[in-house]
Amino acid sequence: MKKVFLFIALVITTVGASAQSDKYIAAMKKNLAAIDSSFRNPANLLTLANSFERIAIAEKNQWLPYYYAAFCQVNYGFMEADKEKTDGIADKATELINKADSLMPNNSEISCIKSMIASCHMMTFLFLASRAGYLVTSYDDDAVGHMVKNEHGRYWVNEVLLRPRIAWGGDKGAPDAAELDLWLTRVLTIQRLPELFA
């Protein structure tokens, strides 16, 4: 009798897992099919990001829903007309991609989304400088990526150090070091260079 109950429990568990998996696959397919058309209207990207996040919450061990939620979120950030909101949108994308990264560490696709998020934050830096009355005439960077081997023996970029050189124009010239640090440290790991504040 124990064997019969054990067999029935195993069948129910297998069928339940299969049904959940089918539901997950169907939801992912539906959302993935909607990505291309969502770029026509930025609000649709945000709706899609929220939908992917709901899938991720339901499927706690799946990294792809978090990945696509972050992808939609950061693209929404690039398209958002109100640049005051861009930093918060990028922060939400960071939260989502970090969850994906915790489930699938050292994934190069996740690293690409992290780079997109950094670019979105950089838009915030340029906006903050502009809003404060500063003119950025050029931004150059000698970024350095640090590579390490993952547990599979493959190299990946685990850290990027940005060393920006910013040329300022306009009547105000360059901001003081404290104000610049405030803007940059919101989003970047900065190695101070003397010419940064020249």
Care to describe what's here?
There is one protein chain. The chain folds into 2 domains: 1-121, Alpha Horseshoe (Serine Threonine Protein Phosphatase 5, Tetratricopeptide repeat), CATH 1.25.40.10; 132-198, K homology (KH) domain (GMP Synthetase, Chain A, domain 3), CATH 3.30.300.20. The relative contact order is 0.09. With 198 residues, the chain is α+β, with helices and mostly antiparallel strands. 61% of the residues lie in helices and 13% in strands. It has helices at 2-38, 42-58, 64-79, 86-103, 108-131, 177-185; strands at 135-141, 144-149, 155-161, 164-169. The chain is built from 6 helices and 4 strands. The longest helix has 37 residues, at 2-38. It is flat and about 60 Å long. The model is unreliable at 3-19 and 189-198 (pLDDT under 50). α3 (64-79) runs antiparallel to α4 (86-103), α3 (64-79) packs parallel to α5 (108-131) and α4 packs antiparallel against α5 (108-131).
Labels describing this entry:
two-stranded antiparallel ribbon; two-stranded antiparallel sheet; 2 domains; alpha+beta; disordered C terminus; 198 residues; Serine Threonine Protein Phosphatase 5, Tetratricopeptide repeat; single chain; GMP Synthetase, Chain A, domain 3
